[in-house]
Amino acid sequence: MTTALAGPGPLPALRALGGRTVVVKVGGNAMGDGSLLRTFAQDVVRIREAGVRVAVVHGGGPQISAQLDLVGIEARFVGGLRVTTPEVLDVARMVLAGKVQRDLVGLLNEHGPYAVGLTGEDAHTLTAVRRYAEVDGEIVDIGLVGEVTEVNTAAVDVLLDHGHIPVVSSLGRGTDGQIYNVNADAAAGALAAALDAEALVVLTDVPGLYADWPRRERVLDRLTAAELEAMLPVLGGGMVPKMESCLRAVRAGVRSARVLDGRAPHALLRALTAGPGGAGTTVLPG
Ligand SMILES: Nc1ncnc2c1ncn2[C@@H]1O[C@H](COP(=O)(O)OP(=O)(O)O)[C@@H](O)[C@H]1O
Ligand SMILES: CC(=O)N[C@@H](CCC(=O)OP(=O)(O)O)C(=O)O
């Protein structure tokens, strides 16, 4: 009961991943307009139909900021994390678990009965504690921002076992029931680690990790976990949570973590079928 997918499909390469788990993170910037998301959804279903257990974690930072703007709340970030007052949390929850997740699930389900949306709040999937930012050595209170301390994969595993595509919004729950806004890169890395995934793929709006940011001349095609760890203190902006998440995943046993441009046609398929260097920046154990 599936719709045939258009375009070439490197299915033999994907079949090598059959039965393995892949976690894909799609950021709000990489979602771009509807057509990008449509191709992304086709690729995810193609991967699922090749027998890969695929889970999606999504962000929606720009979409949250746009909604905050509409209701007259200023969006503020400290150290790449959104300052999350109770009012901001309400908006983030409404946008992430609402329109962004529903749109993504809807596009995936155009190609078959696979996608099921949930948030990290559901079935204790992501347990979080309050996270603080650090700026110039100072600890800064950024409100209801969560750091994932525990992942319960039970619900996601049941869905994957039954051939579904779990689509997880980056919200977490404290053991006291408090809901937290979790950075989506961090949520994806934690989930990939807990699922013992074969690969983590992070789709964003740059071709990978630039070696000499803000110069956009050279993208690092691969680096080991140790090389990445040494680089982390000098990284800035949106790359910090992404690369931290890749490091966490690889250190926990995920075989590879890759950051690449989700706006390139069939970026996800290319990431899973090309070796390191084929597209984006790949972090490998070591
Ligand atoms: N070394 C770097 N290499 C690439 N991008 C970088 C680097 N340092 C900072 N960035 C910034 O990080 C951004 C990606 O992070 P972000 O905007 O949070 O994306 P997403 O919405 O996909 O999570 C890039 O668009 C770029 O402006
Ligand atoms: C704490 C924190 O900053 N949470 C993020 C969650 C969404 C996210 O991470 O979205 P992207 O992947 O599109 O950046 C936010 O509120 O923007």
From TrEMBL:
A molecular function GO annotation = acetylglutamate kinase activity
Per the record, the major location class is cytoplasm
Cell division keyword on record: no
Q: What is its EC number?
A: 2.7.2.8
List cellular component terms (GO).
cytoplasm
Q: Which domain of life is it from?
A: Bacteria
The record's listing under SUPFAM superfamilies reads: Carbamate kinase-like
Which protein family is it in? Belongs to the acetylglutamate kinase family. ArgB subfamily.
| Described purpose of this protein according to its UniProt entry | Catalyzes the ATP-dependent phosphorylation of N-acetyl-L-glutamate.
**Identification of the protein by name:** Acetylglutamate kinase
Name its species.
Actinacidiphila glaucinigra
